[in-house]
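Quick one, probably user error.
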């Protein structure tokens, strides 16, 4: 049986997620992915940054567990991960 994470560890996770989402371009990416999967090139067309920059932002979001990626044909599609947002959602429930 896994040991429950301490409140301090949970709070550090929330702080990390907030820091990652503190970048405006990442927030726009998250908002766009909330409408459905997209490739980095498609996202870059909607943003004032290069495709390379979008890929770097997606890597940070993926590393934090907020985004998942899958290969479909020659494209790599990115999707939001509801599991990644769960710690943040639980923390925000305290303020509802």
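Nope, works fine. Designed sequence:
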């Amino acid at each position: 049986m896994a040991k429950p994470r301490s409140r301090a560890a949970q709070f550090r996770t929330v702080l990390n997620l907030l820091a990652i989402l503190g970048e405006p371009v990442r927030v726009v990416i998250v908002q766009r992915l909330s409408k459905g999967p997209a490739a980095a090139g498609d996202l870059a067309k909607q943003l004032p940054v290069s495709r390379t920059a979008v890929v770097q932002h997606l890597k940070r979001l993926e590393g934090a567990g907020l985004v998942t990626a899958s290969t479909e044909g020659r494209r790599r599609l990115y999707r939001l991960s509801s599991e990644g947002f769960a710690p943040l959602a639980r923390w925000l429930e305290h303020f509802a």
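The chain has one domain: 7-93.
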